[in-house]
UniProtKB/TrEMBL annotation:
Family of the protein in this entry: Belongs to the shaker potassium channel beta subunit family.
UniProt name for this protein: Aldo/keto reductase family protein
Keywords of this entry: NADP, Oxidoreductase
Pfam hit, one: Aldo_ket_red
Length: 328
C-alpha cells in the first residue's frame, strides 16, 4: 500500500480506502462483511469510509465491530452527515446544527471511537446558512471529536465558500468526495481546480463505475444475478452506464488492461489515482477476494500512451459536464 497526504493537511491516508456504502448492513451478511474488513486490513488499507445513512446507520455499526481491537492511531475513520436517518423526523436530516451535533455523537457511538479523522458534509444544504453548518463543524473540531472536515459532491463555488469560512474559523477543511472514474469526469473542469486552489484533495467513490468498468456487464445481455445493477439502490446509480454504446466501448478496455498486466478493475482504480488531486480511491467489496484484487492498483503508474488509448476507446461516452455536480 502507498499513502498520500489529504489536501494541504498533515494527514496521510491509504491510496486505496475501504467503503461500505451498498454492502454492510444490507447486501452482505455480517460474517462476510467482517471478512472483507479483515481483508482490507491485511492488504494494508488504513482508511475506512462510511456514513450514517448507509443501511440507515447499520453500516457504521458493522464497521465499528470490524475495527474493534485495532490500534486506533493506525486507522483513519471517515463518516458523513446530511441524509435522513432514524424515523425521519423534521430534524433527522440536513446540515443544521442540531442534526450535525446529534448525528456526530451517534456515529461515534456506533463506530466505537472517541473521534473520527474526517467528518464530511454528505451534500450541500441550501436550506441552512453555511455559517451555521461550519460553526457546528468547528465546535466538533475544538471538542476533539473530529480532526478534519470534508464534503461530498460540492460544486467549485460551494467549495470556495466553505474554504473561506473554514479559514475564518481556523478549522482544517481538507477534502471533497465526488464520483469519479473513466466514464464520469465532471469534477475535472471546475471542482479539481477549485480544490487545488483551496488545498483540498479528492477522495473518490465509484472508481469502477459501480462495476461497469470491470467488464462484467455485457452489451445486449441482462445484468448478472446478484450484481449491483439488480439491487434497488445500486440500480439507480448504475443505470446511466447500462446501455450498449457504453458497454461496447468499455469492452475495448479489456485488451488495454491485459497488455498492462492488469485486470479491468485494477486499470480503473489505477486510472483515478493518476490524477494528482486524488488522494484515495474508495473500493467496496462483497467478497474478500475483491479487496485483494483492487489493492493491486496502489502504486501503479500508467503510461501516457495507455491513458490516451483509454480516452480513445471511451470517446463519445465520457461525461464531463460540470453542472452535473449538484445537491438536492
Amino acid at each position: 500500500m502507498e499513502f498520500r497526504r489529504l489536501g494541504r493537511s498533515g494527514l496521510n491516508i491509504s491510496e486505496i480506502s475501504y467503503g461500505n456504502w451498498l454492502t454492510h448492513g444490507s447486501q452482505v451478511e455480517e460474517e462476510q462483511a467482517q471478512a472483507c474488513i479483515k481483508a482490507a486490513l491485511d492488504a494494508g488499507i488504513t482508511t475506512f469510509d462510511t456514513a450514517d445513512v448507509y443501511a440507515n446507520t447499520a453500516a457504521e455499526s458493522v464497521l465499528g465491530r470490524g475495527l474493534k481491537g485495532q490500534r486506533r492511531e493506525s486507522l483513519e475513520i471517515f463518516t458523513k452527515v446530511f441524509w435522513p436517518t432514524g424515523p425521519g423526523g423534521p430534524n433527522d436530516k440536513g446540515l443544521g446544527r442540531k442534526h450535525i451535533m446529534e448525528s456526530a455523537h451517534a456515529s461515534l457511538k456506533r463506530l466505537g471511537t472517541d473521534y473520527v479523522d474526517l467528518y464530511q458534509a454528505h451534500r450541500f444544504d441550501r436550506t441552512v446558512p453555511l455559517e451555521e453548518t461550519f460553526g457546528a463543524f468547528a465546535d466538533l473540531v475544538h471538542q476533539g471529536k473530529v480532526l478534519y472536515i470534508g464534503v461530498s459532491e460540492w460544486t467549485a463555488e460551494q467549495i470556495t465558500q466553505g474554504a473561506a469560512l473554514a479559514r475564518e474559523l481556523k478549522i482544517p477543511f481538507v477534502s471533497n468526495q465526488p464520483q469519479y472514474n473513466m466514464l464520469w469526469r465532471v469534477i475535472e473542469p471546475q471542482v479539481v481546480p477549485a480544490s487545488e486552489r483551496e488545498g483540498l484533495s479528492q477522495i473518490v467513490w465509484s472508481p469502477i463505475a459501480q462495476g461497469v468498468l470491470t467488464g462484467k456487464y455485457k452489451p445486449g445481455q441482462a445484468p448478472p444475478a446478484g450484481s449491483r445493477a439488480t439491487d434497488e439502490n445500486g440500480a439507480r446509480m448504475i443505470e446511466r452506464f447500462l446501455n450498449d454504446d457504453v458497454l461496447t466501448r468499455v469492452a475495448k478496455l479489456e485488451s488495454l488492461a491485459a497488455d498492462a498486466g492488469l485486470s479491468m478493475a485494477q486499470l480503473a482504480v489505477a486510472w483515478v489515482l493518476q490524477n494528482p488531486n486524488v488522494a484515495s480511491a474508495i473500493v467496496g467489496a462483497s467478497r474478500p477476494e475483491q479487496v485483494h484484487e483492487n489493492v493491486k492498483a496502489a502504486g501503479v503508474k500508467l503510461e501516457a500512451d495507455l491513458l490516451a488509448a483509454v480516452d480513445e476507446a471511451l470517446d463519445g461516452v465520457i461525461e464531463r459536464d460540470p453542472t452535473l455536480t449538484r445537491s438536492p
